[in-house]
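Here is an idea for our session: we take a single protein and study its fold together. To get us started, please write out a protein record for me. Start from the sequence, derive the backbone structure tokens from it, and show both lines together. Go ahead whenever you are ready, and we will take it from there:
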Amino acid sequence: MQKLLTVTVPCYNSQDYLRRAVESLLSGGERLELLIVDDGSTDSTGQIAEEYAARCPGLVRVIHRQNGGHGPAVMSGLQEAQGLYFKVVDSDDWVDRDALKRLLDTLEEMNRAGNCSDLVVTNYLYDHGEEGKRKRIHYRGTLPVWRRITWDEVGRFRMGSYLMMHAVTFRTELLKNSGLALPEHTFYVDNIYVYVPMAQVKTLYYLDADLYHYCIGRPDQSVNEAVVLSRLDQQLRINRIMLDSMDPEQIENPRHREYMLSYLELITTATYTYLMRTGKKEDERRAMDFLAEIRDGYPAVYRYLTSAPVFRHPARAVVALPNRIVFPVTRVAYRVMQRIFGFN
């Protein structure tokens, strides 16, 4: 019998928290396939993964690979995936057991009825472990609940509530055929993971359940403020890959096209804001050069970025304003980015 859901857990030196992630997923039982991808760990991560594979041979498989970073680890899991749907759960995060059961029940019902949606959306929570704070990201008011829909029924996404990796469960066949490729040794590939296959999504299903717990607050996390600002070259690389991956103007459905452009706007504004945030003249020049690159190479995207009704698209003001007053604005915009991405 085909598994309903493949969950890939990419991990590198995750011995301190891998068990929490895996234990939360084991509740899925035989309807779930769990692939633990050990990305060349040097601690006991691989041994812990093998222990679970020996304990749950029909449920858990382990993939050992040379270290290539988060993206290739996800792609290794996707290549081996046998489930009808595919989801990524990072090794320092976990899922709610009751919500996982609801997700599997929903996938089973759709499969039995022969109307599988391309994408299933669930809620997620930012978990600030040390502070004991949680922030729920949901899609009520944007997506109709508990039924298969098309983009014609999708409303406007609120700032801070776009479809991040934690919220999405793609149909595996769509994901494999989407042209998705994630680069080696590069952070922030989750933006590519969500953006590229989203262009192929025709039908969606919103399951209003708090499934994913996104653990943040560790000083070494990629979304930590100091870490983000130290990896601007990688942020630029991700942004350029997204710009190159498709022409959003070729997407026929207006609401689908608007979403793709809006998500690209979000990432581009973040890149620009990070560069301006450092206060270095070199990074300020790189920010302006990046805008010129978009203007010359991606005119439709540039028009979208710089055509403001600013009251509807406040992030767009950052790249639309004259350069002489951009820097003070980026201080405010940066705090908006913090709320959107949940970093420290």
